[in-house]
Design goal:
This protein is 29% helix and 18% strand. The protein is α/β, with parallel strands linked by helices. Helix 7 packs across helix 8. The longest helix is centred in the last third of the chain and has 26 residues.
């Protein structure tokens, strides 16, 4: 018995308090930053001040919003915090946070989202900037930047653990209803029955569908002006302004949306590990319809046959259209794009949709050898490096080599090494023997081990990679455009990196989550590269549906539309911008995608109903973009209320 007790204590080692006191605070939405700190001893007086012997801090809390909040601890060395998004606002839950998120730099990953976003079962975490030892911990802080309304937070216990105790949803009422909506939040227009949904679906299907208001050609170009046609998309600079040109020669601006698919937004990650969070999940019979096995699929001997994960979005498509829902759902996607003035299926979209060849589309290359432990850099010094590029690119482009609907390919997305070159070099030096390590050691031995030389080595390696990819791509596919890498911090891209891009890309692409992209940033890029530009990602969201507010928040659904018009029209007023990809088609899953994100960023909600304010704004913008980009019409001037991004948080507690 003694051994059993000792083993149990070693596995769990929860340090709990006796009769903890509940701490409570109401955030003030009128302030730029609103928050407070609570003494740890007032919540759990038995916690030690030094946390080196533990791996997890467990927070038992209830917050009245899905808006992200900062959670931090005051230590001997300073204040250390990260961002938390709760999947279950207005409910008690236990969230276990690995202490390494406070003390260590993030593990290397391919891109920024994989680096900084980390999923748990009752919420997700976005890592902060300051890290240090958890010594002398005496208080816990909570704060929200530009709180939407006046939400409150309560904390009734804090514990420590050696092993991961898991997360617990602590309420009896299910957190998500049978349609995949939040069961803890109400809003105007929420579906309370299948009859509610059916009425809205029928109303949408009765709406007329036409592209006449946008004067689009077959491929989505503008009939206002036609130049030389080549049968494929290309770029051309006319009177100092860059344009895409469609296969028939019409000037074209790529007005697109990422992740276009039907039945998205309701994926349930590890639903069996979240007891009592779901009111209902699809039966085995329904799942067989939603996720049928191909007729020729064979069970692999010795491999367990896993039941497909439920998906509320797909289930709602089945409810809407019946067993043969796929064809009708695909057609509805195209009808919506026609109606809303969207002429491009942007990145990460369904092959079922872009394969219809009814809308222009953009793809992303894969298999280029960019490695996770190199923060998305490729080891160009491997002996099989060129052979691997040849094999991957030739196979990728063959599928759409003669397809006029394809605009081109992105090379990659948000490399995590950008502005982290010094750290990446250290990871290479401390890592296993490999060709890039040998080259780096030789380079530093010859030139000196300085921060400048470390950066120079990474940029030089990246330059070679970009030009090798472009050369091989053009060898196997001379018909389509190299759309570049979608950089995650366009303002932080150095001049040396931009110069490398200038001769390796047909289009310079970047993701830009701001109120509006800075003209100075785009002017600088245009001056250095003189390339047309595409914004690969941007979006706006709020919290009224129980989802997190996206990377750029606004006050309500109506303001999402205002924010879209302001951003998009002002962006296209720049002479270099030729395309945008709004992120994304459908809201993210209520209970989080693989990295945890659960943003209200979609044009469609999980019940397959459009956000009216958002899509109506998109329609108005699509009508004027040709004139805005031509410089003959002033872009939309109204700014959205309570806009705020996810960037660095001021040190001030109450501004």
């Amino acid at each position: 018995m003694k051994r059993i007790l000792l083993a149990f204590a070693a596995a769990l080692l929860l340090l709990t308090g006796c009769g903890p006191k509940k701490a409570q605070f109401t955030f003030d939405g009128s302030k730029e930053m609103s928050g407070t700190k609570f003494a740890i001893k007032d919540i759990n007086p038995n916690l030690p001040a030094d946390w080196d012997d533990y791996n997890f801090v467990i927070l038992e809390y209830k917050i009245g919003t899905a808006q992200r909040f900062q959670l931090g601890f005051t230590t001997d060395w300073g204040y250390n915090e990260l961002r938390v998004m709760s999947y279950v606002p207005n409910a008690w839950n236990r969230l276990a946070i690995p202490l390494k998120y406070f003390t260590q730099l993030p593990d290397p990953a391919h891109d920024l989202a994989a680096t900084f976003n980390h999923a748990r079962y009752t919420g997700w975490i976005n890592l902060g900037g300051k890290r240090g030892p958890m010594h002398g911990v005496d208080s816990v802080g909570v704060r929200i930047r530009r709180a939407i309304g006046t939400p409150s937070i309560e904390i009734r216990n804090i514990e420590l653990a050696v092993e991961d105790p898991g997360d617990v949803y602590m309420e009896e009422i299910p957190a998500f209803d049978e349609f995949g909506q939040s069961n803890l939040v109400d809003w105007p227009g929420k579906a309370h029955s299948l009859a509610d949904l059916e009425a809205d679906w029928r109303a949408e299907e009765a709406e007329p569908v036409s592209t006449d208001a946008y004067n689009y050609s077959k491929f989505g170009g503008y009939k206002q002006k036609q130049v030389k046609a080549t049968g494929y998309f290309r770029t051309e600079k006319i009177d100092g302004r860059w344009w895409l040109v469609d296969p028939e020669g019409y000037l074209f601006l790529s007005v697109g949306v990422d992740c276009v698919n039907y039945g998205n937004g309701g994926e349930l990650r590890d639903y069996d590990k979240r007891p009592n969070m779901y009111k209902e999940v699809p039966s085995d019979e329904v799942m067989a319809i939603l996720s049928p096995r191909p007729a020729n699929a064979q069970a692999r001997p010795g491999m367990p046959q896993r039941r497909p994960q439920p998906n509320f979005g797909m289930w709602n498509q089945y409810r809407r259209y019946g067993e043969n829902f796929r064809e009708k759902a695909r057609e509805m996607v195209i009808n919506r794009m026609d109606k809303w003035g969207l002429n491009t299926i942007a990145n990460w979209s369904s092959a079922e949709i872009y394969g219809m060849n009814r809308k222009a589309f953009i793809l992303q290359m894969g298999g280029l050898g960019m490695e996770r432990d190199l923060m998305g850099l490729c080891d160009i010094y491997r002996p099989d490096y060129i052979e691997g590029l040849e094999r991957s690119i030739s196979a990728t482009v063959q599928r759409n080599l003669k397809n006029p609907w394809l605009i081109g390919y992105f090379v990659a997305n948000e490399p995590a090494w950008l502005n982290e070159e010094v750290r990446l070099c250290q990871l290479i030096l401390d890592g296993p023997e490999r060709p890039i390590q040998k080259e780096l050691k030789a380079y530093l031995a010859k030139n000196g081990d300085t921060e400048a030389n470390r950066r120079a080595f990474i940029v030089h390696s990246f330059d070679i990679f970009l030009h090798d990819v472009n050369r091989i791509f053009k060898k196997y596919d001379p018909n389509h455009l190299n759309m570049g890498i979608r950089f995650g911090d366009p303002d932080g891209v150095g001049e040396d990196v931009l110069k490398a891009c200038a001769t390796a890309f047909d289009v310079f692409s970047f993701n830009c989550y701001m109120e509006v992209p800075l003209a100075s940033m785009m002017d600088r890029a245009m001056e250095i590269m003189d390339l047309p530009m595409i914004i690969g990602e941007y979006h706006f969201g709020t919290v009224d549906h129980g989802l997190a507010q996206s990377l750029w928040q606004v006050e309500d659904q109506q303001q999402r539309g205002v924010a879209y018009r302001y951003y998009t029209e002002n962006a296209y007023a720049h002479p270099a911008l030729v395309g945008t990809g709004y992120f994304q088609w459908c809201d993210q899953p209520m209970s989080g995608r693989n990295d945890g994100e659960n943003y209200n960023c979609g044009l469609i909600d999980v019940t397959d109903r459009p956000y009216k304010e958002q899509v109506e704004a998109m329609m108005e913008t699509a009508k004027v973009l040709y004139d805005v980009h031509s410089g003959v019409k002033t872009p939309y001037a109204e700014r959205a209320r309570n806009t705020r991004g996810h960037g660095s948080v001021p040190d001030l507690w109450n501004e």
